[in-house]
């Protein structure tokens, strides 16, 4: 049984286990998922995933990555992480993705809510921030529904295949 760290209604955040990597590896290479992530052109080998997992275990003070678990089926549906955790300044960067077949069910919105709960209540951070490309409407909606505010933008900063250069939006959410 996988330990659950933060429980929600539709999804929960659980401990990432080695068996998750074979799913994450496929999704991480899916161009529709990749398009709005950094290094969209990149191709990942399974060994890269294993190395990433080992590094994550070693660096766990500054990186917390969770498995997003669908409550009804107990299946892995995506990953969500708090990165660059900076305890001195009380902040971390949020990132997430879901497998395509699970899009559109409100899962990311709830996963972000749960990750914020973990960041504010358990890590005692004061601020979580995220970078999102201006054409990633679903992700912008997920952030805004969770109380993130637009803090600034880098203009025509990121090349998105099929879309050209787009603005990168900086979103931030302070602890209430
Ligand atoms: C972004 C992503 C995580 C969203 O996951 P999801 O579980 O489908 O999101 P949710 O269902 O919780 O919410 C999506 C919201 O965006 C809305 N939305 C989705 N596509 C939209 C579109 N093209 N135009 C307008 N709104 C849209 C949905 O209606 C929903 O809003 P609502 O709850 O008000 O109806 C998922 O699409 C994904 O993994 N994308 C690839 C990776 C990625 O972009 N990660 C984030 C990088 S910043």
From TrEMBL:
The name of this protein is Ribosomal protein-serine acetyltransferase
Which InterPro entries did the record assign? Acyl_CoA_acyltransferase (IPR016181), GNAT_dom (IPR000182)
Q: Which PROSITE patterns match?
A: GNAT
Q: Does the keyword Lyase apply?
A: no
| Alphabetized CDD domains for the sequence | NAT_SF
Q: Keyword set for this entry?
A: Ribonucleoprotein, Ribosomal protein, Transferase
- Database matches in Pfam families: Acetyltransf_3
Gene Ontology CC? ribosome
Q: Which GO terms describe its molecular function?
A: acyltransferase activity, transferring groups other than amino-acyl groups
Keyword Ribonucleoprotein recorded? yes
- What domain of life is recorded for the organism? Archaea
Record-annotated N-acetyltransferase domain positions: 15-175
Gene3D superfamilies with a match to the protein in the record: 3.40.630.30
């Amino acid at each position: 049984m996988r330990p659950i760290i933060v429980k929600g209604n539709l999804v929960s955040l659980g401990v990432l286990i080695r068996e998750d990597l074979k799913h994450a590896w496929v999704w991480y290479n899916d161009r529709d998922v990749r398009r709005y992530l950094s290094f969209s052109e990149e191709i990942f080998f399974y060994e890269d995933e294993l190395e990433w997992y080992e590094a994550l275990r070693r660096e766990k003070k500054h990186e917390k990555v969770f498995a997003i678990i669908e409550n009804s089926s107990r299946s892995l549906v995506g990953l969500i992480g708090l990165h660059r955790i900076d305890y001195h300044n009380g902040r971390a960067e949020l990132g997430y993705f879901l497998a395509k077949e699970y899009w559109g069910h409100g899962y990311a919105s709830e996963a972000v809510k749960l990750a914020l709960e973990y960041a504010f209540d358990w890590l005692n951070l004061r601020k979580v921030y995220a970078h999102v490309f201006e054409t990633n409407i679903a992700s912008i909606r997920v952030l805004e529904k969770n109380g993130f505010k637009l803090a600034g933008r880098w203009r025509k900063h990121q090349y998105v295949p099929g879309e050209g250069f787009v603005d990168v939006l900086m979103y931030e959410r302070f602890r209430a």
